[in-house]
Amino acid sequence: MAINLPETDVVVVGLGAAGGVAVLPLTRAGLNVIGLEAGTWMNPGTDYHADEIHNNVRALVTTGNKVAGEIPTVRRSPTETAVQQARHPMMNAVGGTSIHYHAQSWRFNPWDFRVRSATLERYGAGYLPEGTTLEDWPVSYDDLEPYYDLVEYAVGVSGVAGNIQGVINPEGNIFEGPRRRDYPMPPLRSCDFLDRMAEAARAIGYHPYHAPAAINSGVYDGRPGCQFHGYCDRGGCHVRAKNSTDVSTIPKALATGNLTVTDNANVRRIESDNTGKVNGVTYIRDGEEYFQPARAVLLGCYTYENIRLLLLSRSGFYPDGLGNNRGQVGRNYFGHWDVQAGASVTALFPVDLNIWYGAIAQRVIVDDWADDNFDHAGLGFIGGATISVSTEKHPIGSAAMSTFDKVDRRWGSAWKAFIRENAGRTASTYIQTSTFPYEHTWADLDPNVRDPFGDPVLRLTQGAKRNEPMAAAYAGEKMEAWFRAAGATDIINTGGGRGPSLSTHAHGGTRMGNDPGTNVCDNYGFSFEARNLGIIGGSVMPTVGARNPTQTLQALAWRTAQHLVDDWNGITA
Amino acid sequence: MDKPPGEDGRQVSRRNLLKSAVSASSVTLIPLATSSCSTPIQPSGLVISAEARVILETFVDRIIPADDNGPGALDAGVIFYINNALANWNSNETDMLVEGLFNLARASRRRYDKEFSLLPNANKDALLRDMEDGKIEGFANSTQVFNRLHRLTLEGMFSDPYYGGNQDYAGWDLIGYPGAVMSSTPDMQRMGSRLPPLHTSAYGSDYDGD
Q: Is the pTM of this model over 0.90?
């Protein structure tokens, strides 16, 4: 029997990038909040290392105890048996995946929120990708702008504004939507290589700028600026300059006295009553089962676990899973990296680049072929990709690099001479496209594979996309031209080609929208069916832009939490 | 470190070969890192037999040979890295890889009537090319075994010396990676010429591999 705990106002399930932000407006409004987190607190002094084996080869920062037991399966079509993947892309910890992410912290372009109607207006219905279930977001850029601003200042984002209240600054992203004020911090420092790439971009008519990052460029909130040691990717920050929620918003929420963090809590079900309202959460901690009653629940796990927990939380009222009486949970799932939505381009220069150090978010980026920033007439696809270059090269990865067909084997003395000369002379980048939902891509429970508790893991069915690889190929050519303009002598463009896979940018599955027949959440992120259940995280996003999703899902999480505060009596009635 | 890497790779090589011979017979423990590490490398004895080890030593020596461009994989202690990996993190692969090494040795005896380690380099390389290309009869997964051993060799050569390889920073010196630091200056990101070596491990100043 579960141990019954005293009721609280709000339970937040998962204290990662989304939940770790949502607790701040809730606790500041005076609500009592219990945050249930499957992992525990990380210790920057002992848990993080400047070490490629630790972070990248063995993924020891990112491998959490709980996610390791619930890795999803993937397949291309319903006729295949889905195969469980080797590693979960996420981690369990207070701060969650914001601990090891690149901290590229973006607002989406205003176009991203209305891709469907903007496409119909500019190009006509024939331009919508075949089989897409694309809908406009139920919120606009203007709706979200105040929350983007709150997140940028509470989390701490460095960058250079391109559009402050309509005034364009060519040093920033000239394509971005208007922001009310500048970033709280200037961008991360530049370096020779990035300066050369920016100069080359301008020379061929591109509009480069320094990418924003949730990393301190100087002292902020009492924490130091980035030290550029070059082990940010999949590593936590040893000086707490990366603004993961465990060092930014969660401590601020704890300071209100209204947040209780319960770590090592393995949430198994969200419970509901016979009217369809949720009334609490069942979790296991140290082998003991607890029931935590709550007036409202915010579900804030990674996309995969948000979907799975809803599907597992069956009841008399919800026989097919919580909030799933219309069969929409798991629909409209899409990953940024599944089915060749991404492509990578690697360039060889005739000079030592010295980009060993730095940070993966120390980056110059170009938006000219992203979103709808260019005319797509005759191209056969919508959306586009950002192209960018960054620092942070690791030794094993650099030694294992492409040999650009210059030696016939990747071993032996000839190869050794090649890498001696060139391992420090390559720059590798990826093409990140806007990505949309399709009928052929969804998530459900796997009929065969189970987690250590005996519950099914999530199964992802990912059909082949046509639109996104075309956008990636188009932008890939622009990236090649950019590398050449900067003096690269050789270029390898992989052109994508990934099979179905798990994604560090997983979205949808509990999509927000205006139509309850095709969406799980309303325009504030609350379940259409369980009215006191809010859902936060990438799973609510209807599309993803040509950029990293975290700041957008954090702004949405803040907005959902604020709505709970503002309409507390209505939502919990 | 008693000598800049690359000046006399052969001497370094002999020294480390001697060291590996000692560890082969007495099961020398790999030194532990500073206590600040959350993932201590457990000291491990040899997880593969002396016979398999000789084949593995020959393999890594041909993947990254000692030559005019500096020490090779043997000099850098890649064997220590792989042994630690097979004893711990990569232990699920040990059986497959050891079986693969014996398949390679059998192919050598069949083709040249000689042990793999005693072949002239040209013959060793010809066998390894066929192994990589999947062209050795009776060795169906030769490409897979080659790729994994190749990958482990690179990991051993270019990882932090804390893990047992990259001794005397031979791997990092080869590609011009100065070393692990807690903080970099703008000067350390200047383009144009190789940065001077720092020979620093993420796990403290003692980790030069000796």
A: yes
Of A196, A228, A395, the CB nearest to B158: A395
A129 alpha-carbon distance from chain centroid: 23
Contacting residues of A for B89, CB less than 8 Å apart: 58
User: A351 by DSSP, 3-state: which?
Assistant: coil
Residue A348: its chain B contacts at CB < 8 A? none
Structure tokens at A327: 């069969």
B36 touches chain A (CB under 8 A): yes
Return the residue matching tokens 């959350």.
Answer: B38
B3 is a domain residue: no
* Residue B58 included in any domain: yes
Within a domain: B1: no
* Residues of the domain holding B73: 9-21+42-189
Of A57, A355, A395, the CB nearest to B175: A395
Question: Which domains are seen in chain A, by residue range?
Answer: 3-572 (3.50.50.60)
Quick: pLDDT tens for B61-89.
999 999 999 999 999 999 999 999 999 99
Handedness of CA A32, A36, A40, A42 (dihedral sign): negative
- Please indicate, yes or no, if residue B57 is contained in any of the structural domains: yes
Q: What ipTM, to 2 d.p.?
A: 0.94
Number of structural domains in chain B: 1
Res. A455: pLDDT tops 90: yes
Facing B39 at nearest CB: one of A60, A191, A229: A60
Long-range pairs for B3-10: beta carbons < 8 A, 24 or more residues apart? B3/B168, B5/B70, B5/B71, B5/B168, B5/B169, B5/B170, B5/B173, B5/B174, B6/B69, B6/B70, B6/B71, B6/B173, B6/B174, B9/B66, B9/B67, B9/B70, B9/B71, B9/B72, B9/B75, B10/B66
CA angle, residues A275, A313, A550, in degrees to nearest 5: 110
